[in-house]
Predict the 3D structure of the following.
Amino acid sequence: MISSFNEPWREKFEALGKILKAKYWFPHWIMAALFIIGGVWLFQTDFGDRWLPYLEDIVTGDRELSPRNLPPLVIGGGMIMMSLGLLLHSRIAWSMSLFLAGLALVSIIWADRSSWQLTYFVILIVCLALFRRSFYKSSLAANSIFALASTVMLLLYSVIGSFYLGKEFDPHITEWVTALYYSIVTMTTVGYGDINPVTVEAKLFSISVIILGVAVFATSLTAIIAPMIKASLTKIMVHKGNSMKRENHYIVIGNNSLAINTCNELKDRGKHVTRIVQPNVDKDSVSGEDVIFGEPSDIENLEESGVKKAKAVISLLDDDSENAFVILAVKEVCDSVKTVTAVNDTYNLKRVKLVQPDVIIAPQILGGELVAMHLEGEEVSSDFLMERLFQQ
């Protein structure tokens, strides 16, 4: 009963999303803006309303940086930097953003800040968790950039902090080179023991550097190695696809029940099926030996699927406009391949016909007609069914 109650609301939200073109800006633009606001808020809390001139004075050396200002400086600057990665749907940027938001929350609780600020960052973490699937892109170049940025930020935090807390170490840290040396040794958890923190503040600072170092290095290493492994696996799968002769095959696009059942029926008839599934789909929910994760209307993905040697391309996405874009992309690559597309909404039927697919299937539209005809006692013939279901 609950699902049936929520179904009309879900359809209304989906319709509103299509009208507002939400997929082009939601949620990545919203999350990026929220992170910039959060970073600036941390700056204003610690440095006052004139936080920008304050930061300029610190950079130019006209003002000394207090150790207590280090956490908001690093966290706030990192949040503003990671907002760019969120705009690009970067997975590593999402991971680092979640980590920074957690650190901000801890610092707010530790310093007993405003309850409004505490609530804001709690909501920020919840939103990151809810929209985690929207941040799915993982490229070696992007991951390397953000991994390097995270390492540099941590290094600055460690060097500046150890230098300004220099008198609280034994022996004292009085030079930037010594601060850099201590930072590297601590971040990498080598710990030679030649420089030791002697006060509570210095010990807590060293603990934070160790924890951040382990977290940043582990995340960065995973972010860089994962795409390399993925690329190797992709090559293996492509080689496997070639060994299965990716020709005279069917390309099925989508991961809904209609697409899955179509794949199963074709496989039951001994046909080879190559699937193209959108990248934001949970990979564990996708079955099939030959699957490509990527935008279905992307020319490179279509060429990789062997569209020029395919018997037919069957686009069964839930969004009629995306189905139309897929057909246009297929015709751009190979105009001779047979195209089949689904139409889910009666109002879009004429528009989809404009892209001239070879066959249009409209099971949902036909289902509504059949229900009305049955209730009115009208005769349903096999010719009518074939004509309405498969519109040549």
